[in-house]
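This section describes the prediction task in plain terms. A model, or a person checking by hand, is given the sequence of a single protein chain and must write out its three-dimensional structure as a string of tokens. No templates, partner chains or ligands are provided. The sample shown here is typical of the held-out split.
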Amino acid sequence: MQRSFITDKIYKGKNYTTHRLERREYENCTFNGCNFENSLLDNQNFMECTFIDCNLSSVNITNTTFKEVSFINCKILGVNFETCNTFLIDFVFHNCTLNYASFFGLTLKNQQFKDSKLIEVDFTKSELNGVDFSGCNLEQAIFDRTNLEKADFTTAFNHTIDPEKNELKKAKFSKDGLSGLLIKHQLIIE
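The expected answer:
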């Protein structure tokens, strides 16, 4: 059975905590102020969609496709992004709270995480070449065997990254952020 397309539709203030969003292919749709907390978004397709002021905490996104999807001012706690469909994966997070999310093993080249809270987010074994972490709080974020080549950390803060366990070639850091690269050595930097 082929799923129908829904295009150019705006969903405003909808509550999907008690009933799930229909399984469809959503293209160029906007979800504004919707609550998806603990809901099922598995096996969905979102192409060129925007989520604004939505709560997507603890959603199930198994086999879900995100192609050119923007999340703006969203709360996305504890979501396992590694379970989504990785083919054509492409998203932007701006001013979002992604605490406790996992991007384990994903290839996210040139993606944008801007002005977001990424507390205790797991980026283990991820390919994050050219990723932009501008203005992000990376407190206790896990970078282990992560490729961070050309990633931008110049305005990111609270990050702890071991250069011996991660690829950092041509990654950008501010002078203030260098202490996060040296923390394991217990140096006092003044």
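For orientation: The longest strand covers residues 69-72.
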